[in-house]
Design goal:
40% strand; single chain; 2,3-Dihydroxybiphenyl 1,2-Dioxygenase, domain 1; VOC family protein; Anthracycline_SecMetBiosynth; Glyas_Bleomycin-R_OHBP_Dase; alpha+beta; 8-stranded mixed β-sheet; 267 residues
Length: 267
């Protein structure tokens, strides 16, 4: 599928800068670091090193020495879900935060400075789906894509696609286009003609689940093999492998309940 990370290089070179509006980072909030590192280290081969202290207990996940994701610990006094959160690049986080508010979104955390991670804000769109915005400093964000164990795509599941897509279009300047999928109520967000993220309207089916949310897709070599590793490491399969718009995909959950999709690209 088309790389959704602006200047990121599929062959592993670190980008100097992510084009504003492109996904630039993903971060997991979990109950503890040790069990999380064990699961994702076994699944993707990640190694971990400490991250910015401003974010509390936090580590960066590395693949072959390149940063690919972050993992933080949920505050014990807050009832928040264990979940992956995508971050979108911005040249001015404060201005983007203002745009989020003026377009009906909510700013929950920040803007705040986080050492070499840059300036961050975490908020939600009008439907309640949580996402982040990142203005890079020394660390540009996800430094490698297109290889197993790296983020490949982000998709928002919400009640109705077109209305929420207009929020992201207003905040980040995207173009909207009906998704290639034959399924109903799907929109692809594009930037400079390239796919950036997907929006899927699920209607009342969301009432049976966790509400509007973003899902991050990670590249794997083979979904069947990856599913076996998920199960051996204590995770769960939420949707069996099936063919989608971008390849063969399966939805899984880690042992603490965080959902993620595993994507095997076309061969």
């Amino acid at each position: 599928m088309t790389d959704a990370r602006g200047n990121a290089r599929p062959n592993g070179g670190a980008p100097a800068r992510h084009t504003p509006g492109t996904p630039c980072w993903v971060s997991l909030t979990a109950h503890g670091l040790e069990a999380t590192e064990e699961f994702y280290g076994g699944l993707f081969g990640w190694e971990f090193r400490p991250g910015p202290r401003q974010l509390g207990p936090y580590v960066r996940a590395l693949l072959d020495g390149h940063e690919v994701a972050g993992v933080g610990v949920l505050p014990p006094d807050r009832d928040l879900p264990v979940a992956w959160t995508p971050y979108f690049a911005s040249d001015d986080v404060d201005r983007t935060a203002d745009a989020m508010r003026s377009c009906g979104g909510t700013v929950g955390v920040g803007p705040l400075d986080a050492a070499d991670a840059g300036r961050l804000v975490i908020g939600s769109d009008p439907s309640g789906a949580v996402f982040g915005v990142r203005q890079a400093a020394a660390s540009p964000g996800t430094a490698v894509t297109g290889v197993p164990g790296t983020p490949a795509w982000n998709e928002l599941t919400t009640f109705e696609a077109s209305g929420v897509a207009k929020f992201y279009t207003a905040v980040f300047g995207y173009d909207e286009k009906p998704a290639a999928s034959a399924g109903p109520d799907r929109v692809t967000l594009r930037l400079n003609g390239r796919p950036v993220a997907g929006v899927h309207g699920a209607g009342r089916a969301l009432l049976r689940g966790r509400g509007p949310h973003w899902t991050t897709y990670f590249t794997v070599t083979d979904t069947a093999d990856a599913v076996g590793r998920v199960l051996r490491l204590g995770g769960r399969v939420l949707a069996p492998p099936h063919d989608g718009d971008h390849g063969r995909v399966t939805l899984v959950a880690d042992p603490q309940g965080a959902r993620l999709a595993l994507l095997q690209g076309p061969r």
